[in-house]
Design brief:
Layout: E1 3-21, E2 24-38, E3 43-47, H1 61-76, H2 87-90, H3 98-116, H4 120-123, E4 134-137, H5 143-155, E5 160-164, H6 171-181, E6 185-189, H7 199-205, E7 213-214, H8 221-230, E8 237-238, H9 245-257
Parallel strand pairs: 4-5, 5-6, 6-7, 7-8
Antiparallel strand pairs: 1-2, 2-3
Helix pairs in contact: 1-3, 8-9
């Protein structure tokens, strides 16, 4: 298989309803799509998941566009590959930029699945046509509005509810959600809105039996290992970070050897 053409497309997608996190409120998404094509006209599509600003992580729409166009695409273009599984290694000499890399890799996996005439989910090893899914609900203008959103998603069949939280929208809101909806599978996601000074709040959150309390702190090693070990339930404290194997080794060593 040889990729003979790569096309990058940016679309602007107005949201039906604003989506707010501790980073701010979003009304429109800027999304990069990548279309890869072979000489015989077969094509595959990939989507870049980076945000509009480098707030969630270092990657963002503008940086991904530049990296995709100037650096990553030439690494794949006109290269003979046996399988989509080889694409990631073709880009491995470029550090980081995982969202940009995944855009092209996904497109090639989509292309390969189409050439094999199998659904992408099955080509990737999936066995179930349907799986239980969860949904993420942003900060709302009122708790009543949040209740409406949660009920709508539960009625639609979603099994897990994750609500965005921030210092002005946390303990009391989750408390009200628990009282209104009982023992639903519930998570809280702070998107790095807190610091270690808020550990007492984290302890109080344990009473709500959350599936996880996601990303309360920044992504650095010290900021999320220490409170996991010393201050509250290890398994309820989750943070999201793009890390290297070296970082993971340091993290495991810190967890296993801390007092």
């Amino acid at each position: 298989m040889k990729i003979s053409r790569i096309e990058l497309i940016e679309i602007k997608m107005p949201l039906v309803h604003f989506f707010e996190t501790s980073f701010g409120r979003t009304y429109e998404r800027r999304i990069i799509l990548a279309r890869v094509e072979t000489a015989n006209g077969a094509e595959g599509w990939g989507e870049c998941t980076a945000g509009e600003t480098p707030s969630y992580c270092e990657e963002w729409t503008e940086s991904c566009w530049a990296v995709l166009k100037e650096i990553l695409s030439p690494m794949i273009l006109n290269r003979e590959i046996e399988s989509a599984a080889e694409v990631w290694d073709l880009m491995k000499k470029i550090r980081g930029n995982r969202m940009a890399k995944a855009t092209l890799e996904t497109a090639v996996w989509d292309l390969e699945a189409k050439q094999l005439n199998v659904p992408l989910w099955k080509h990737l090893g999936g066995v179930n046509r349907e799986i239980d899914c969860g949904v993420s609900i942003g900060i709302q203008d009122s708790v009543e509005q949040l209740f409406e959103k949660i009920q709508t998603e539960l009625d639609a069949g979603y099994k897990r509810i994750k609500i965005k939280i921030a210092p002005h929208w946390d303990y009391e809101v989750i408390e009200k959600v628990r009282k209104r909806f009982g023992d639903i599978l519930l998570m809280g996601d702070a998107n790095s809105a807190y610091s270690l000074a808020d550990v007492d709040l984290f302890k109080r959150m344990d009473e709500f039996n959350l599936m996880m309390f996601e990303q309360p702190l920044a992504h650095t090693l010290d900021n999320f290992v220490i409170p996991m070990r010393r201050d509250f339930d290890f398994y309820s404290f989750i943070t999201r970070v793009q890390f290297s194997l070296n970082f993971l080794e340091k993290l495991l060593d810190r967890i296993l050897n801390s007092n």
